[in-house]
Amino acid sequence: MKFEKMSEGHYLLDVKGYVCPHPQLYTKKALERLKPGEMLELQFDNPSSGESIATMCDNTGDEILDRKQEAGLFVWHVRKT
Amino acid sequence: MSEAKRKFWAFAIVAILVLISGATYAYHEYYLYLSVYLWFGFIYGMCLQYGRFCFSSAFRDLFAVGVPRMAVGIMIAIAFFALVGAFVSATGLSTFHSAPSGLHAVIAGFIFGVGMCFAGGCASGSMYKTGEGNMNAALVVVSISVTQAIFVDIGGWANALVPASWAKSASEKGLPASINVADGWVDQYLAGYVWDQPVLSFATMLGWSDQSVMGAFLGNFLLGVVLPGAALLVVVYFFWSRRTFMKKRLAAASARPRLADELAGYWAMVVASKRTAIAGLALGIAAGLHMYASQGLRVKYGVRNAGPLLERMGFDFGLSVNGTVFDPGYWYVTTQEAQWVGWVFHKLGWNQMDNIFFGFNNGIPNPLINPADWMSIALFGGAAVMALLHNEFKFKKPTLETAIWAIIGGALMGIGSRLGLGCNVGAFFVRVSQGDPSGWVFGIGMVGGAYLGVKFFNWWTERRMARQFTATMT
Lengths: 81, 474
Prior knowledge:
The complex is a heterodimer of chains A (81) and B (474).
Chain A: E1 2-7, E2 10-14, H1 22-33, E3 39-44, H2 47-60, E4 63-70, E5 73-79
Parallel strand pairs in A: 2-3
Antiparallel strand pairs in A: 1-2, 3-5, 4-5
Helix pairs in contact in A: 1-2
Chain B: H1 3-27, H2 31-50, H3 55-65, H4 69-90, H5 103-119, H6 123-131, H7 135-151, H8 164-171, H9 185-192, H10 202-205, H11 213-249, H12 259-270, H13 274-301, H14 306-312, H15 334-347, H16 356-362, H17 371-389, H18 400-420, H19 424-433, H20 437-473
Helix pairs in contact in B: 1-2, 1-17, 2-6, 2-13, 2-17, 3-4, 3-20, 4-11, 4-13, 4-19, 5-18, 5-20, 6-7, 6-17, 7-15, 7-18, 8-9, 11-12, 19-20
């Protein structure tokens, strides 16, 4: 797991290689630490985690700005509200 | 992988399965029986991958991140399997038999529930994820398989842990000498305790037979599945879904929700994840039709189990002392996984036929002609085809950390499966759907185990995230 600051207000969470429940738990914990308006780039490769993360963001109100998928790798950008 | 390559591999998998079915049928008609398992396994694999259908996440994601989509999906699958199953039962073609109900099912479910949290997926979930190219999930499958084969044959020092009442009761069951029931913890647990527990269904508890229309539809379907399932979803709605829905629906914060709002919220929760709901519907219908097809072939060939069919085809190795092999006639996962390893161990010189699980009940036929194995192999294939077609196939190697969780989780699921006489599919999904109360009892244990597993991983991930966050902010 890698969590790092890429630039001011822009963070990266890399949970490639992890299966459930790690990607959704780390995403939840990362978003909890961000301030409103800050952005999280999320990288994961466990497809089922995507369903849970999308619903979780819907519940919390955090906004998924875009979702890219290529060869089993998912890259999402989420803005903390 | 390019789109053309992905399509090629998807079609190649289907072509190989078609070839296996066609060639074996041409060789002997009885292979049709194995092909029924194969194609239903393929459908299960496709449905599981399409809906990201994992029983582990049903409970785990509720507690971990407050997401109810999988709990809803499973209830949909159970409801449809139960409906089709009721038709099959009422026509006298059901292959299902209830399991003994008792406290053991809660304990087994609890151990299994902890295990599936550690492993990152249930027994069936780990299989479809293996089809996605996830080698961590493959490690879970191996761990479940090896643990089961070892666990069911542990004797020696473990015999000292068997209560005297179990040993006495087991010795009175009149089991064949080849089983040597006095040597083996699981043997004495099964014959001395589990077999003494009541075998129930909602229909029989109300005085109807499982095959009667009243028993099948009113007892097992309505009272055993629909009402408790709908009630459970009401609980899930009020605790995990209602607040968010009402916040969006009611413009004024002070407005009080009416019954129509509550019903709309309940329905919105049910259809929130279309993929999961569609997969649940397809899985439920397929699981019911699978029973119908298997029993139809049994009637056609005049058998009650695949053992005699294998024997007629000249395969007599690995049949149980009763001449049977594992042949549930419906979706099942863990027993055939144990059989793979049991067969290997036996070939390496470890006698696996002197225990009840293999020697008396399920046998250890060659995996190439083991009916339920055809289902499992095709399940991998179905999941791989779906993942390839949706560009979700990715070969993933385990890391040391994830491999440790996989091995521990798989081992706990293996032990839980054998104590509960099945996994999340055999002991929960199938039994609940067919009106067997022991399925709900196993499910209660699974919920408790999942809760404990989530507590652990909450602590673990919080610790690691806190460390990384501090490092990145300084």
